[in-house]
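ok trying this again, last paste got cut off
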Amino acid sequence: MPDNNAKVEPRYGDKLQHMLSLVHPWYCVLCQQPARQAMDLCAACADDLPLLQQQCQRCAEPLSVVAAMCGRCQQRPPAFDRVFAAYLYAAPLQGMITAFKYQRQQVMGRVLAESTGRHIADAIHAGDLDTPQALLPVPLHRWRLLRRGFNQSWLIAMDWQRTLRQHAIDIPVQAAVLQRRRRTRPQAGLDLAARRRNLRDAFSLHATVPEHVCLVDDVMTSGSTVETCARLLKQAGCKRVDVWVLARASRTV
């Protein structure tokens, strides 16, 4: 008969994390206080991140009332099949993403990706989220990539791959499938019609796509970018296209 009072030995990974924390202590990127969990975010600041609550079950649009789908998805179903976003695009997360993309503070993106990755793993293990065959980062045009120095979507996808592997979920990142062949204006500040015109013929495929893929991006607002990519993937024979993002913004942002 097992002894329920027997001492449980810590796992090797837990011992390693403890040893690493002695050499390199974890400090919260928001409040600069010691962080007890194995990431640069303390428990109090993690609780302050705005979780996405009521949402459209198709596009994850924040809703003020309980509904299965928003009016736009009911009237005009998008090319993608489902959006998963753990957080609402609001403070303090909004400032973290700005620092990540435009101030080159990649630690902000890593912290958010690790936190979101845990939500994704929980949803997959609970059966609430299907596991795609590949993660496809939304690409940047080469000139914007040179200017920024990195593609934030690729960094997020790699962080998610690493975090999910820690939860026994292995999804490859296929960054070469989608490419941005035309330089476009920044989407911020454009209305929906202008965003769609801006993205016309902006992407191309350069490899065979699996039947079920997941587009990766940092924030979804109008959905024009992922809609354009999803339509292209479906035309190439992809049967299911999901979208995972760090945060979901209202279309009015």
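PB: full thing came through this time. Residues 44 and 161 are 26 Å apart (CA to CA).
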